[in-house]
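Section 4.2 – Deliverable D4.2 (structural model, holo form)

The reporting period included a commitment to supply a predicted holo structure for the target in complex with heme C. Inputs used:
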Amino acid sequence: MDFPLFHLDFIGNRMLVAITAITHVIVNHPMAVGAIPLATLLEWRAWRNNNAGLDELARKITFVFFVITTSLGAMTGVGIWFTTSLVNPDAIGSLLRVFFWGWFIEWIVFVLEVIFIMIYFLTWKKLGHTGKKGHIITGAALALFSWLTMAIITGILGFMMHSGSWQPYFWQWSEQSSMFAAFFNPLYFPQLWFRTPLALMTAGLFFLFLVPFFTRKNDQVRAPAVRMLSLWTIIWLPFAVLAGLWYWNRIPAYLAEQTPVAVTTQAYTSWYQTILVLLVIMVVAIIAVSAFGMLKPRRLPRLALIVPFVFAMALLGYFERVREFIRKPYIIQNYMYANGFRIQDYPLLKQDGVLKHATYVTHHTVTEENKVAAGKDVFMLTCSRCHTVSGINSVTQKFDDLFPNRAWQPQQLSAYMANMHNVRPFMPPFPGSDAERDALAEFIVDVQYRPIRLEGAQSAAPVKQP
Ligand code: HEC
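Output (structure tokens):
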């Protein structure tokens, strides 16, 4: 509440973060965390068997992921910082207080990773056959660093979903307030052991997808490479599925209940079963193609290599969406709601109102005259992290679906909002006072008839001293 409120009223703040984060995961799981050990393994095999063709294939594939990860991968990685800090500075601030050293180490590891990948790719040809051993060791170190960045971030992601026995620091030190208590949360290992084989498996699919671009059908190297990559892909699949089930079982039940909405969106929850079937079909397709590639590597058509790769990308994207969604209503479980308000502050805010304690608003109290304008401030503070006025997930559209008669009464909306967290548990309870809730209802009724595109709030109103 002490920060300016950034707001995108067309695509919505959630979508901005989602696009950045999902792109990052789709790039970095298969093309960095999974790809580097696989490229190093291929290089090592080529070296042991004196197979120059395989070495060249591994180098060419490395070129592709080198370019993509150091541009799109790195940009979206930093982009996650920019977008999440803009959209929910309170949450990032709280996470920084807990994970300061974790992030500090992460940055060092990340910088080392970038240096290593430069060395690894740029010296591949220069070192030649004699320097191979050193080059392969560089690849192994790079693989380790790239996995470590994921292993650190996973601690924070898991914590946001399930804070376990962690206790916020309230002026008295307790072991349960330490970074370690937060980092080794109940979801840490299941999520890490799920992401690791998933990255390795999808890297196999990514390599398979590229092989036809870099080899001709009758090339000596093609069939053994396809066979090896298919084997690699299929080996990791059961680990990913088992760890996925473990992870699933550890997710608190009340979060897991939201999966149907997470997988589809509220309007399409009836498609949930269909989408689950599609997910199973995707997994089966990945198995089928890898099995085919192992048995008949020469026969595997190009199209068959594209399909599982695209499927795997879709799967990865979906997992991220579901993970982000089911964390609701919290942004940090049992500590802060996704609207940026701490649970512990709710009693105070209910009594005083949110406007009184907010910096970037135009009104600090609700009066008879300023209801609509104050309601707009309340909307910015309590709904705009997730809803727009007239874009994606628009609040007027949502009320329209609920009360389609279009003649809303402010009391009707206010009564709904007092209870909305019970009806829709993915939404946090309304944090402010009753007067603020009524003002918000006035504002929503007003924008129903006079649609606006809401701007962010960057300027603060002077606080009147009583
Ligand atoms: C944590 C994010 C979040 C916050 C904060 C939030 N909402 Fe929602 N809200 C959602 C999501 C997600 C949906 C369902 C979207 C879908 O899939 O259709 C939703 C649905 C709704 C619906 C339709 C519910 C139904 O029963 O169909 C209304 C009305 C609504 N929100 C109003 C509000 C108002 C008013 C506020 C602010 C006081 C608010 N929301 C705050 C995330 C949020």
